[in-house]
């Protein structure tokens, strides 16, 4: 077991950040912590990386206790905080050399591990880290977190504020790292990224809602979901909210995801209702539940 | 050890890439020494005075010549009546007016007594006082010279001798003070800012989750500033020796050793400040208010400690700068050695150890 979390709770003054959290992450697993801002993801990361002490519960990372053996953990994990935390006035190469040195290694020694990532930023190695673009910064930060060949990698919202192309590349890199035997715990507020993890935990208000593989989580979705579109989206959402049998209404890209309270729901009834509201070009079609739908349903 | 060197290298990158603080670091000492040496001074030189001479005889002429012949005063204008005195002062370029009464010589011979009125502009009390004293002493000297042949009934002659700073140069008093301020500022403020910057930018979070030990971080932060502060101390001493002709009577080696001791003391204070402040702003404010003001006001640099109220005198004992100024004055002006200064040195050593132990205890190995 790479990460073992047992009944962790943590409060700050009068705010409860984590309530009785327990889960395990297997060796070599890419585990996602999915939840909105303020769900407690960062607090959990900080407890696991020995930066905070939990009020209750115990946790082990790479078989080390996060409180008693904090020094061992600091030798064997890589941590990339949510905020860009490298030295902005140092160049790309200087940053990487610095982190290699304080972990008692060199860039050459573990170059094969970071090669895929580093080649992309190598052309800019003499540029100051502060002048890099968002995606480049993340790649550099990941290189720095990897340079000492950690057993477990903690990535706190690594793709927040990064363009879609770089985000995709970033996740491809994580997949490759996973193949090299590194356990990765990653948090993200983006539901589409959740599907790329081996297993995910949905977290909100400091509580775990569900833990499973992305496929299973979606399977558990209890309702039938319909994609609904009309020429006037705003009017459509207003009308659906007025509809007395609606269970949930969420805008989802160019469609609205709709579920009904009744088990014997007939889309024709809804179509009639919407037509009476004066909406045009109405489309109602069956669709598959996504992780986002599951999350919204669980968070209700 | 490799880790440690890597850390120090990084610190030097930070310092040399931040041109603004580099400018403060090296520009400030020079500017301060020059300011205190040339501009801020208690001495008077070429003070403009005006004369209202109602008798215009040989004696008054002689006295006026005596006064204006000194480098202290230059006669700016002659005034013809009392009404002009006020307007002369109001124009602001006159610091004093000498008024000789009518028939000065005659009265002196007939009545053995004649008066000179000295009117000074006391908006600046120090200057007014000094001007007054200087004019009085010139008059007295003149009196003694003219009375040489007459034997007075009896006479007490004070023979004063100013030692250690015979020319009463105020720069001699300021140099130890400025050196103390600058070492304090560079060492304490710069280190506290550089440590809190790591907290503020989040890099401290990564440093904590790494094998580097707290004392390595602290010493790594301190070493570069020890170097820079030593360079500053050397610059200040060279400036004072070559520009202000300040003597260094005692041993240069002792001066260097004591300066390093004080630098380490200030650095440990800086670390202590960084452990209690979360942002660079707070660190700077605490350094300025908590360190600079006491150094300037309570260290005996500008205001003599002996004339302070007792509570302030007691507070002044806990200010490291006070002891360092005593040591500096002792070495530079009096030329005394460690046999005399051991007590002050011991106090500084004790304070340093206290600050270091306290800051290592207060250094957080986690975020809260």
Q: Which keywords apply here?
A:
heterodimer, A: 300 residues, alpha/beta, Rossmann fold, Alpha-Beta Plaits, six-stranded mixed beta sheet, four-stranded antiparallel beta sheet, 11 helices, 28% strand, B: 368 residues, abc type-2 transporter like fold, 2 domains, four-stranded mixed beta sheet, 14 helices, 4 strands
Compute the number of strand runs of chain A.
Answer: 14
| Lateral strand order in the biggest sheet of chain A | 6-7-8-3-9-10
How many domains would you count in the coordinates of chain B? 2
**The CATH C-level class name of the largest domain in chain A:** Alpha Beta
- The average pLDDT of chain A is 91
The name of the CATH superfamily of the largest domain in chain A reads: P-loop containing nucleotide triphosphate hydrolases
Kindly report the spatial arrangement of strands forming the biggest sheet of chain B.
2-1-3-4
| Low-confidence parts of chain B | none
Taking the alpha carbons of the first and last residues of chain A, their distance comes to 32 Å
Question: What is the H/E order of chain A?
Answer: EEEHEEHEHHHEHEHEEHEHEEHEH
Largest sheet of chain A: 6 strands, mixed
